[in-house]
Amino acid sequence: MTEAAAPRSAAGSALWADALLASFAQAGYVRSEPAILQPAEPFLDLSGEDIRKSLYLTTDPSGEELCLRPDLTIPVARDYLASPRAGQPAGFSYLGAVFRYRGGAPSQFLQAGIESFGRQDRAAADARCWRWRWRRPPPSG
């Protein structure tokens, strides 16, 4: 890649991200931006100790084990459960960096998605998410 091509590529990525976030918002999903540093326990509890080798871990002064977020689903869910809207229907979108050791692949990459919480008709909520995902592919550019 030449130096001249890099800014166009970065601009193209920014335009793609803006378009994706705008389409999430248009579909009714509120943007969520969870903290990059997260408690490690929820990731270890859900995925087991096998995930430990791919986490970037540290310990705070109180001894709590923390990690760079390896995905955004758990942090978005934690933020929702800690909010005053917990238990009420809510939809969130996200686009942000996640961090996982993946051998020769980049350890930092972007994850985008939507999460739906508190809906009474779970099957309909799931279908709405899947319909949205398949009907709105990322814009080219």
Could you write a compact summary of the structure shown?
With 141 residues, the protein is of the alpha+beta class. It is 38% helix and 23% strand. It has 4 helices and 6 strands, in the order αββαββαββα.
Please explain how this structure is put together:
The chain is built from four helices and six strands; from the N terminus they run αββαββαββα. The model is unreliable at 1-8 and 134-141 (pLDDT under 50). The chain is α+β, with helices and mostly antiparallel strands. The protein has one domain: BirA Bifunctional Protein, domain 2.
Give structural attributes:
141 residues; alpha+beta; BirA Bifunctional Protein, domain 2; 3-stranded mixed beta sheet; 3-stranded antiparallel beta sheet; 4 helices; 23% strand; globular; disordered N terminus; disordered C terminus
Ordered list of secondary-structure elements with their pairings:
Layout: H1 5-26, E1 30-31, E2 37-39, H2 41-47, E3 57-59, E4 65-68, H3 73-82, E5 90-99, E6 108-117, H4 122-135
Parallel strand pairs: 1-5
Antiparallel strand pairs: 2-4, 3-4, 5-6
